[in-house]
Design a protein that fits this description.
About 35% of the residues lie in helices and about 30% in strands. The protein is of the alpha+beta class. β18 and β19 form a beta hairpin. The longest helix has 30 residues.
């Protein structure tokens, strides 16, 4: 039988949440294992700014999340590669006259947020982790089993290559379809939205004006997110949430027809949609673990909760999970507590569960509101959007909340 290696903390998943947590806990006299099914070799990121060289998956990083990434020593590499600050947001209702504008000047901030390619975030965090001598990476091996040890003190993990680990605290950062969450029988509440999101990069005729654009259609919200351009070439990342029955036909369109459909759906706000990269689609499902913790185990990020992408808050909620869990673990260790004790983990859950539920409920409420086509609802919805735009303090509070600083 292979020798069991003991760690204070074992993190399953080296995506954004897992690698961020490893970086946050490093250099604190803790032995940390970072387990990832895929190889962790850092690919060279393409420098060219064209359709074929942007990551189709991007994130809208709030100023609050940017501060955390700076604290972890990752933001400098992200900014040094490429990111696009956005100063403005335009949101409008396709079924009426309601619209609202948000601007960073309304709250005296340099930016509302930053559009960053996901691979740039992961690369920067993994490069940071690679410099941490107290983090041991186990990559290229799928998680096979995890269980409480016989005496109830800690968790045992076995990988497909035969590696066996023991940890005082096991953290599931392994995404929406979390194997840890499933193996350890965390109950969840979940349902399908009946939508899939199409993501791709497009070239548009006119400059995006450092603005995030979102149009609410009867078939689902459409977002154009700004990307850094090159000369007179202008690019946006799109996230188009569509009813399930419409997605396959949209994906089957040739490039010219898809660009035409996208331009029409967007009301050509940025002129013609000139070209697009390959398209990908993924299902949209609401999922929330009833509890984020049990003795010796904590869920973070998408393993604990998934949210509709219409406000781009998923990654930001996950990063705040990471920040809160790291703070509670380190505070507990300073008091002589084992990091897997419920006295430590309950504090993490109390800090994060309410905020996550509030954001998830708000996003579901927005989605439901904009799907209603009854004329009185449409009138109230449009009047409400116009009214919020005229009430300065309320608008400022909405902006601060979206930025993660309210």
């Amino acid at each position: 039988m292979a020798e069991t290696r003991h760690f204070d903390i074992a993190i399953i998943g080296a995506g954004i949440a897992g690698s961020a947590l490893a970086a946050a806990l490093s250099n604190q006299n803790l032995a940390i294992a970072l387990v990832e099914a895929r190889p962790l070799a850092l690919p060279d990121l393409p420098a060219a700014r064209d359709l074929q060289n942007f990551d189709p998956r991007v994130s809208a990083i709030t100023p609050r999340s940017k501060l955390l990434l700076e604290k972890l020593g990752a933001w400098e590499a992200i900014a040094g590669y490429r990111q696009c600050p956005y100063a403005h947001m335009t949101v409008w209702d396709a079924e009426g006259t309601g619209a609202i504008e948000f601007d960073c000047a309304d709250v005296n901030a340099p930016a509302l947020g930053y559009i960053v390619e996901n691979r740039a975030i992961v690369n920067a965090l993994l490069a940071r982790v690679a410099d941490c001598s107290d983090v041991v990476a186990f990559d290229g091996a799928q998680l096979q089993e995890c269980s409480h040890v016989d005496d109830g003190a800690g968790i045992r993990v076995r990988l497909e290559d035969g590696t066996t680990l023991a940890a005082d605290l096991l953290v599931a950062a392994d995404g929406a379809v979390s194997r840890v969450r499933e193996m350890m029988a965390f109950p969840t509440r979940e349902w399908d939205y009946g939508h899939r999101a199409i993501v791709t990069t497009v070239q548009v005729e006119h400059w995006h004006r450092d603005t995030c654009w979102q149009r609410f259609l009867t078939t689902g919200p459409l977002a154009f997110l700004p990307l850094p351009g090159e000369g007179n070439s202008h690019y946006c990342s799109i996230v188009w949430s569509l009813q399930e029955e419409l997605v396959d036909d949209m994906l089957a369109l040739d490039k010219e027809a898809f660009c035409g459909a996208l331009e029409h759906a967007f009301e050509a706000r940025l002129g013609r949609v000139l070209d697009c990269a390959p398209r990908f689609a993924f299902p949209l499902r609401q999922r929330h673990a009833i509890d984020y913790v049990q003795p010796g185990i904590a869920l973070v990020g998408d393993a604990a909760h998934t949210i509709h992408p219409l406000a781009g808050q998923g990654i930001n909620l996950g990063l705040q999970d990471v920040g809160a869990l790291a703070e509670e673990v380190l505070a507990g260790c300073a008091r002589g507590l084992n990091p897997g004790q419920m006295a430590v983990l309950r504090r993490y859950q109390r800090r994060r569960k309410g905020e996550n539920l509030l954001m998830m409920a708000a996003m579901d409420g927005f989605k439901a509101l904009f799907e209603q086509q009854a004329l009185p609802v449409r009138w109230l919805r449009n009047a409400g959007m116009r009214g919020v735009g005229r009430i300065g303090p309320l608008k400022q509070q909405l902006i601060r909340h979206a930025m993660g600083v309210g």
